[in-house]
Amino acid sequence: MHDIHTVRVEDSPMEIFLIQPKGKGPHPGIILAQHIPVGHTGVENDEFTLKTAERYAENGFAVAVPFIFHWWPKEETIELKREEFRDDWTALDLKAAYDFLGSRDTVDSRRVGIVGHCWGGRVAWLGACHNPELSACAVFYGGRVKLPMGPNTPPAIELAGNINCPVAGFFGNEDQNPSPEDVDDYEAALAAAGLPHEFHRYDGAGHAFQSFGNAERFRPAASEDAWRKVLAFLNSNLS
What we know:
By secondary structure, the chain is an alpha/beta fold. It contains six helices and eight strands.
């Protein structure tokens, strides 16, 4: 089960879905970045994100899912949201989610990480670039890291040197966004910044290989292996 809270970001109301584990804590926390919604979809209709959040909570993490697309009406098109997406707005959203999660009595603010899939994978990378207080970052097949998004913003990959935590990456070798060559560049940027990182690449898997609701893309074996590895990574860095 989840609770819905609303915070204000630059005077715009943003929903945050909070899913907590059993026990009074304080628990380690995760900001889970949502992939881009379609049509009217908000967090409440995003089964993949909510099921993923629940699984993290079952493993002992308090999870906050900010609806970072609050800047547009929910019925607005995916094309417009993609075209107008802004990293400066998103950095504010993620900071608000971090502050919200850290303010909970049930959460240890010194043990908070960020995770995201697809569009949210890029958002997770971006969040780690802007918040040195985060203790871990996990990126699942996040594309567009090499592209700028929004006015006067650099490509997110150029901000790798600002990251202050270990990074884990999970990618399908048949993906083209990011492509294996893009993933090589991600890894090179982290290495150049001297950041501890671990990347896991899966043969026979493409984009969204954890998306259980998409029979064409879902790869159960790769998905479960990635689950084992990301939970080990988070437990190691948020313990």
